[in-house]
Amino acid sequence: MMQGPGGILYSLINETNPTVVMHLGDFKSGGKSCTDDLLKEHKALLAQIYPGKIIYTPGDNDWTDCDRSSLLYSFNELERLDFLIELMFKTPPLLTKNLPSIISQETQIENKLWINDRLAISTLHIVGTSNGRANIDKSKQENAIKKVDERDKNNLTWLKNIEEKAKDFDAIIIGFQADIYQQSVLESGSCDNSSLTACDAFAVYRQAFKDLAKRINKPILISHGDTGEFCFEKLDSNLWHLNAAGDFQYLDATQVIFNKESPDRPFIINGLINPDLPTIGCSN
Q1: Nearest partner of 149 among 204, 209, 197, 189, judged by Cα
Q2: How confident is the model at residue 108 (pLDDT cuts 50, 70, 90)?
Q3: Which of 4, 29, 34, 206 is the most buried (most CB within 10 A)?
Q4: H helix runs in 17-125, sequence order
Q5: Contact of 34 with 28, CB cutoff 8 Å
Q6: How far is 24 from 247, CA to CA, in rounded Å?
Q7: Domains with residue ranges and CATH for the chain
Q8: Source organism's superkingdom (predicted)?
């Protein structure tokens, strides 16, 4: 029903005719093995939704959770990450091939920035499973943690790059997979690289977004998937938060319209299947 040209979301997205479609990770179920064939199949499904105009950012289902012992076939998560990056960002057909002037971070190709009609859209590679710091089952722990540190460094560098380009846009949407505002995350302790248990790996990002909003003095919408709630709220001056639809609880797509004329309400948001959603205020 939901996938491919016969699905309701395909029809609604193409009827809406958006400028771009952003996919916030988890393009496969966490309960399915991350085989080459399955990942290729899901890329093909994603690519045909809105050919050449899709900005995708990885989710934990797509690589960090591929080492689950409950899966029929489990994999080294770092090996799956390498395969995923090659498949999604280097192998034709590229999902972004019809987006003129989109740019990628040299050191982390999955981080993108595209500016259209004074609205900027960017991705950061931030995933659940404590951003890859928890449940490392098949990779060498030292290597996995080193990869997390590299991603964090690259992500923060990308935010600085965005700030330097702020004169080119009036507002920005920043998308990634992990719910960095989830209550259980906020209540968890700081990360200890020796324990590999769930922890708050996202405090640096929450602060970075607040600081960026203050420095550029322009509206920023933080958008993610990961958890079930479909909600929208204002966090701080010039900073809004969207827990987007499309995951296990709300099988939907989220329409975001940038309202240039309203500094108090710069983002207009609704579901395509459920236009009365999202709820205002997040409590998960």
Answers
A1: 204
A2: very high
A3: 34
A4: 36-49, 77-89
A5: yes
A6: 9
A7: 8-280 (3.60.21.10)
A8: Bacteria
